[in-house]
Specification:
- By secondary structure, this protein is an alpha/beta fold.
- The protein is about 30% helix and about 20% strand.
- A ten-stranded mixed sheet has the order 1-2-4-3-5-6-7-10-9-8, sandwiched between helices.
Amino acid sequence: MKTEAIIVTAMVFFTIVWSSYSSMTEEDSEETVDNKIFPPDALFECFIYDDLERCWLLYVPDNLEMNSTVPLIVDMHGITQNAHKQYLLTDMDRIARENNAIVIYPDGWGNSWNFGPCCDPALEEGIDDFGFIHELINYTVQKYSIDSNRIYATGWSNGCGMSQSLANRQSDIFAAVACMSMYYLDESEDPSYSPLPIMEIHGFLDPIVPYTSTAGTGIIFADQIWNTGAIQNLYTWKDKNQCSGTLPNYSEETLFYNIQGFTDCTNNAEVSLVTLYGAAHNAYSKDTDGSPGNQGTVDTAQIAWDFMSKFSK
């Protein structure tokens, strides 16, 4: 009966949010970098990297205590989005205020991230986003008293794919990754990879990056179809992190979501999947233009932080 109630709730929720999603026009969702209004409590900064001006938002809470080193969160936006929209969407600024941390929201080139197999225009133009994020972290560490053992990556959609690729290619930098609505698609396996904790949070009703494999569905994200899904992604990281067991040894069930994962992994690197029963592509509590959130049913920012903050290099 509980399972049936969950399914009915999810179907009703999807009908509401998809109606809202479909009614929004392309004009509603457009916002150029030049037209965005920066929040008064975040700094907009830029430097030149690889002959390009690369920019980001920096959020340092007013109540930050600097008598010791603090964690750093790198929060990356989705395709067609930008740092400003990610700042307004994710609630990572609240997480920073409540947990004495700093957040940087990088701007992808052309509102996109090149994490290997995706996404244009950053992919098409060969933008070195891995180098940019590395340089940005070094730059921030030099300016602020950052705990280099507690640097975390998160993001949405394209930014989640970028986060997981960063885990693969820069496992010496990041302590953990917890991101929303995209899978690990990096085709370049880094031989120096050292297992680190990974959490992926996904809406069961996601019409953009389907919870199940996109193969055979006709659904295309960024002009590509990938033969993977949320469960496959969990097992991909299970194999990369050398976790024992064939079935998840951890499960937490609530009315609105389930968490399952593997905890017996090399380097204590847990792997976790959060399934949101009544969410579409936007896994966050808040709505964004063109993509309704989970209507406040699940505080995914808190779930991501609770997972990441358990780990240190």
